[in-house]
Amino acid sequence: MFLTRAEVREIDRRAIEEFGVPGVVLMENAGRGAAELLMGLDAAKQEAVICCGKGNNGGDGFVIARHLDNHGWRVRVLLFAEPADLTGDAAIMFGIIEKSGLDIEIKPRLPIPEFEESSIWIVDALFGTGLSGMVRSPFGDLIKGMNASPSPRFAVDIPSGLDCDTGHTLGATVRAKATATFVAQKKGFAEKSAKQWLGDVNVIDIGAPRCLLHDSDKNK
Description:
alpha/beta, Rossmann fold
């Protein structure tokens, strides 16, 4: 099954509003599932730099960081926003890792970091499926730096810079070795040109009731 941006949002909305699944639970399930996938990809690499934006994709990244840390990984979180800009579930998840003492660097306007290590995973939790306009500065330079690294990249839900519905790039785009996508594959993933950015795609169950997927499929 391939879902559009609107269809994914509708499943989330219905899970929360009609079925009573708290959004923070969906985020927890998404982040934990992604972390478990990442830990299974390469047992020799137990270090990650997690690049987080201010939206829910960044919130997923905070959850991933916590679960990797719980399993003994060395984790560094780079937040490309001010903590005060975080809202809702993402703010909750940030508060947890902040109180847990994880290594967090706040980089709203600082120079773009260099990713020179080859023995780590770079986790892309910048934009998620909500990105529809072109990637703007300084994120274009950040993504180029991530791609220039010898380290493999792990995309959370969708590689940042890739349009969820069309599979076309919106400027600089993360070239992932693996993508952990939530609920179902996205419509744009079926586009042939998207394959070079996605790497290996794995669908993560976030706990939304299965009937919502069936309803979405019936309405196509």
